[in-house]
């Protein structure tokens, strides 16, 4: 199981008409996620990690096609890496024992 993602404190988001809109309060920038980004974001909000998000989306959209499942996993990794690079999300760290 991979660690879930944490949405940065400066990110304000809303769901409207099947889209997710992000506002970075520090940068003053807006972003509207496309359908794929919205699907990933909704699973981030549910507390899923990268691998779980890829698995969930693969089961919905690429169940019978190995190449499609691989592409979905690559896209999920790339999208979350991009959000992390821009400070929108960060990976949660495992709690200390």
From TrEMBL:
It holds the Pfam family PqqD. Gene3D superfamilies: Coenzyme PQQ synthesis protein D (PqqD) (1.10.10.1150). This is PqqD family protein. It comes from Phytomonospora endophytica.
């Amino acid at each position: 199981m991979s660690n879930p993602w944490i949405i940065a404190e400066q990110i304000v988001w809303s769901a409207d008409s099947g889209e997710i809109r992000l506002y970075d309060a520090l940068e003053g920038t807006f972003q509207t996620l496309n359908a794929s980004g919205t699907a990933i974001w909704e699973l981030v909000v549910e507390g899923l990690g990268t691998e779980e998000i890829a698995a969930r989306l693969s089961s919905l959209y690429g169940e019978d096609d190995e190449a499609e499942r691989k592409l979905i996993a690559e896209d999920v990794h790339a999208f979350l890496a991009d959000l992390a690079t821009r400070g929108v999300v960060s990976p949660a760290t495992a709690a200390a024992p």
